[in-house]
Amino acid sequence: MASFVTEVLAHSGRLEKEDLCTRISRLTQRVEEIKGEVCSMISKKYSEFLPSMQSAHDLVTQVDKLSDDIDLLKSRIESEAQICLKLLKSRKCFDLKILKSLSMELTIQKQNILYHLGEEWQKLIGWKFPPSKDISNLESCLQTELHLCTEQSQKEEKTPGPSISSVLLAFSLLGELHTKLKSFGQMLLKYILRPLASCPSLFAVIESQPNIIIIRFESVMTDLEHPSPSEVFAKIRLVLEVVQKQLLDLPLDADVENEKTSKIILAEMLGDMIWEDLSECLIKNCLVYSIPTNSSKLQQYEEIIQSTEEFENALKEMSFLKGSTTDLLKYARNINSHFANKKCQDVIVAARNLMTSEIHNTVKITPASKISVPDLPSPAEDDKLQVQKVSTTQYNEVMNLEPENTLDQHSFSLPTCRISESVKKLMELAYQTLLEATTSSDQCAVQLFYSVRNIFHLFHDVVPTYHRENLQKLPQLAAIHHNNCMYIAHHLLTLGHQFRLRLAPILCDGTTTFVDLVPGFRRLGTECFLAQMRAQKGELLERLSSARNFSNMDDEDNYSAASKAVRQVLHQLKRLGIVWQDVLPVNIYCKAMGTLLSTTISEIIGRITALEDISTEDGDRLYSLCKTVMDEGPQVFAPLSEENKNKKYQEEVPVYVPKWMPFKELMIMLQASLQEIGDRWADGKGPLAAAFSSSEVKALIRALFQNTERRAAALAKIK
Question: Which residues form the Centromere/kinetochore protein zw10 N-terminal domain (predicted)?
């Protein structure tokens, strides 16, 4: 029983081995047949083909003969050889040397065919570039040409080469058509289409010759900085029509052997490859610059939208585009958004340029000055507030209730001063932008309104930073900046109210205001000017510190130092007076100069009253120094350039200099007797008592007079 089973199993194994060997043998034989058949076919074709490679004419002829066999060769190679290879690989027999050799042979033959097809491609589609790269872009474009060999010219030749369709079909069968078209499309975009889209002076010229069509450039003089969209569309359309007719409008059947028509649309393939880059180029180099800068021109943009639609429809007819709307047309149709974005960007850029321009170029502002913008349009009827009509009788009654003494018409106007010309233009820009918003769409109006607010936020951040050094060092610029801030704050008070009824309804709910920005601008101007005042005060005190405390004036060196210090202080004050003249408003000018002069006088008073001993000669010289200040001090008050108009303010020095009267009393004390001092004290009711405290007067008496009974009696009266 066991031997029988063993025999059966052994017999079965032998059968299985025999069957496997038979199959391997048969498969090997089939592979040899395929290899022989393929190699024979390739050898036969290439034995005819390769010897003639030295002659270009023979090469074209031989390639044309091969064109009819490409499908069969490809079919045989791919259908039988490659299928068998895959089958053998799947059965794990790929380690056989014959299969590796066959696979390598197929790859080599395929690359050979691609090489020769590439040579034919270069003959059918040629590029001519300038010999030197060291030329301008325009010159480079003018020397660039695209040569397309025509189908008709090939048919008329005595020994015609392979047709364009044959070469393209061969690339398609070998799986290289996409690569070739993509390479051609990128070059077409770079050297033909982009220059047409970006340079307004270039236009394409189509030149027909017996064998080829040439696409080249010519240039015309133009004042345009950017090309017109409609012109660019026409130029590009012309080029694509030629390329489509000569190269892409050819029927290709992907499966010739089975007679199944699966038509390859070359134009669609090329369009898919380059359209995204081309549309982006058209937007950035053309459509962006066609966006109007004024809302009144938006209606004219409909022509550009229409030309964009016509351009896309033409490309669809040539199969470059599919049916869906592209980004190019979407961009053109979304003009309101683009207009608002561009307008806002232009406004901010213009504002920043004004903010970074020179501050010292100024214009004079008077109470009667107005922003030079067109009159605001009347609000629409549906936006008007319902105002009740007042009868003539009621009106007269109201008029009769007015007080006899009315305010001046300029009571709430900005006082006369000088501001930067750039700031005046900045406010005009704000008014112009809001005026633009009144005639814009709701979306655009909102964007423009907040762009105006952004202008003032930007001013608050940019100007103090950009001009920091000059604002710290130059007192005139600090004064101008102070005026600029006050000028802006003055207009911000009513800016929103003026446009409240004319803007989009969404902005008419109380949000159209700029009043919240007013305190910040006032603070910005005030802080800058006060910082300059502190700097000037520091310089004045530093100069007075060289006066040697006004002590021992009988010493010539001490007196000379004190006299020099006083002269320097007066010179600085006069220089400031000239620098701020006709710049600051009169009231601000007088307060500023009065504060600085008062600081100087207060320092002098403090130093003199602190002296413990003042001799007669010291007193005379101190009096002389004080008289210099008293005589020349009022001259620093010259707010107006007309000298005769400044006398009024020079006479009002005590109003602006708090320490002026105490200074006069100090001068009197330096020359007065004990009796005169007592009389001016007048039991604490005289002018001396109003200027100094009893302790200060007693200290001065002790310093000025020797210790006598008369001095003691005088001191006793000072209480």
Answer: 27-82
